[in-house]
């Protein structure tokens, strides 16, 4: 994950990770690495969504 991915790219990456894990062809170590990679992508997605939510709150004057 060298460059910052868009949400769409992140979702695609997560889909690929999930498919690899579900295929059952990875070693335990490879599965753990994929899991870690997926968790990093999820954190990046959450951070990105949080930023958008904060911007929307500012635009809406703090209203939810």
What does this structure look like?
This protein has 64 residues and is mainly alpha-helical. 77% of the residues lie in helices and 0% in strands. The radius of gyration is 15 Å and the shape is elongated.
Brief summary of the model shown:
The chain is mainly α and 64 residues long.
Give a topology summary.
Elements: H1 7-23, H2 28-59
Helix pairs in contact: 1-2
List keywords for this structure.
elongated, mainly alpha, 64 residues, 77% helix
Portion of residues in helices?
over 70%
Alpha carbon gap, first and last residue: 33 Å
Query: What's the main sheet like?
Result: none
Taken as a percent bin, the fraction of beta residues is under 5%
The helix-strand sequence is HH
Question: Structural class of the secondary structure composition?
Answer: mainly alpha
Low-confidence regions: none
Tell me the number of helical segments per DSSP (H or I, 4 or more residues long). Answer: 2
- The total strand number stands at 0
Shape: elongated
Q: Report the mean per-residue pLDDT as an integer.
A: 90
What does the radius of gyration come to? 15 Å
